């Protein structure tokens, strides 16, 4: 592998992302499932929630914290997340400018098709793979990312060539050192499958009252076993995970739909507006009103855009979050 070629690719990514993502924040691209990221100032450690995706950084660095785990992803390491995962993250700028990156959503149908076609050529997945992994970038993946960004300069190229290059990116990750993280999505045992179903349910039914006992019963396990397996996957408890989902959802509702805190709290399942405000400030460090104003100011509009990731503007209050 030529480091000169890798650096050339990185610089081309920076150039392309600079044109494609001129405004701060993380926004939809011309391709469904691809997000473009830009952060103009350093961000201190804050709570985030990402959807299952492959994140490639062109400039700058992010450092994540999940339980006792610490991981970094930068221009030399891409990140793979296989579950919608809450963790804490801090962002550093590049020497020559803002943090720039791209996130490609993991499509299970595409992943399954690739695994079937690769067959015996695919290395067996390890017995247990972490839900979040940082992996050294290789030349083949770097080339594919450059071609994806090149394609997104044109709506026609994006529509015709983009899906093929997205498919190649997933393939390259499967071929990489930690491809087992993606394989594990398709080779889950009954217990892990039940945990993923519960996670999906929490993201689609977050406003409903959660009965952990009933979830355990439906999953065919005891409450203590449910807690054990859930924490092994997410590093948190079911109730804490649901609280995190609700707070992130409410934050986006306030920014995107101009809802007041009490209305947003009720919309995501809180019965007490005062409890919502306390837990919101405990998580994000500011009141719901202050965070909403900062989000809107960051985008220079009255409403924040509907992105998977969002970045606030002032001090250390920027937050990237899942907003499906």
Any chance you could write out the topology, listing elements then pairs?
Layout: H1 3-20, E1 25-28, E2 34-39, E3 43-50, E4 53-59, E5 61-66, E6 69-74, E7 77-81, E8 85-92, E9 99-105, H2 108-118, E10 132-136, H3 139-151, H4 155-175, H5 180-186, H6 190-204, H7 212-219, H8 223-234, H9 238-257, H10 261-267, H11 273-284, H12 288-299
Antiparallel strand pairs: 1-2, 2-9, 3-8, 4-7, 4-9, 5-6, 5-8, 7-10
Helix pairs in contact: 1-3, 2-4, 2-5, 3-4, 9-10, 9-12, 10-11
What's the short version?
By secondary structure, the protein is an alpha+beta fold.
Characterization of this structure:
By secondary structure, this protein is α+β, with helices and mostly antiparallel strands. It folds into 3 domains: 3-186, Sandwich (Jelly Rolls); 189-235; 239-324, Homeodomain-like (Arc Repressor Mutant, subunit A, Orthogonal Bundle). It is 48% helix and 19% strand. It has helices at residues 3-20, 108-118, 139-151, 155-175, 180-186, 190-204, 212-219, 223-234, 238-257, 261-267, 273-284, 288-299, and strands at 25-28, 34-39, 43-50, 53-59, 61-66, 69-74, 77-81, 85-92, 99-105, 132-136. Strand 5 (61-66) and strand 6 form a beta hairpin. Helix 9 (238-257) packs across helix 10 (261-267).
Indicate the proportion of strand residues.
15-25%
CATH topology tier name of the largest domain: Jelly Rolls
Low-confidence stretches: 301-324
Order of helices and strands: HEEEEEEEEEHEHHHHHHHHHH
How far apart are the first and last residues' alpha carbons, in Å?
38 Å
Count of DSSP E strands? 10
Structural class determined from secondary elements = alpha+beta
Helix content: 40-55%
The domain count comes to: 3
How many DSSP helices? 12
Task: Provide the CATH architecture of the largest domain.
Answer: Sandwich
For the record, what CATH class of the largest domain applies? Mainly Beta
What global shape is seen?
Answer: globular
The main sheet orders its strands as 1-2-9-4-7-10
Largest sheet: 6 strands, antiparallel
State mean pLDDT (0 to 100 scale).
83
How large is the radius of gyration?
20 Å
């Amino acid at each position: 592998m030529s480091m000169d070629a890798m650096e050339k690719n990185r610089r081309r990514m920076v150039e392309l992302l600079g044109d494609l993502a001129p405004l701060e924040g993380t926004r939809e691209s011309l391709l469904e499932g691809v997000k473009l990221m830009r952060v103009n100032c350093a961000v201190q450690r804050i709570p985030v929630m990402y959807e299952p995706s492959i994140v490639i950084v062109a400039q700058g660095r992010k450092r994540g914290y999940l339980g006792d785990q610490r991981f970094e992803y930068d221009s030399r390491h891409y990140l793979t997340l296989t579950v919608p995962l809450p963790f804490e993250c801090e962002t550093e700028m590049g020497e020559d400018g803002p943090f720039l990156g791209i996130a490609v959503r993991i499509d299970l149908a595409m992943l399954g098709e690739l695994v079937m076609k690769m067959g015996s050529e695919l290395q067996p997945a390890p017995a247990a793979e972490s839900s979040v992994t940082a992996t050294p970038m290789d030349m083949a993946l770097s080339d594919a990312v450059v071609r994806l960004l090149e394609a997104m300069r044109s709506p026609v190229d994006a529509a015709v060539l983009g899906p093929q290059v997205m498919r190649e990116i997933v393939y390259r990750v499967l071929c990489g050192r930690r491809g087992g993280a993606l394989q594990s999505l398709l080779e889950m045992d009954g217990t892990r499958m039940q945990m993923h179903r519960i996670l999906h349910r929490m993201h689609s039914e977050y406003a409903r009252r959660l009965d952990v006992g009933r979830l355990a019963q439906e999953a065919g396990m005891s409450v203590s076993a449910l807690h054990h397996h859930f924490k092994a996957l997410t590093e948190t408890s079911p109730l804490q995970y649901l609280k995190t989902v609700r707070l992130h959802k409410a934050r986006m509702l306030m920014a995107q739909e101009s809802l007041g805190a009490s209305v947003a709290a009720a919309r995501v399942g809180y019965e007490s507006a005062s409890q919502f405000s306390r837990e919101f400030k405990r998580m994000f460090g500011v009141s719901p009103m202050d965070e909403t104003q900062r989000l809107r100011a960051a985008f220079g509009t009255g409403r924040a855009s509907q992105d998977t990731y969002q970045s606030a503007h002032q001090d250390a209050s920027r937050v990237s979050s899942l907003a499906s």
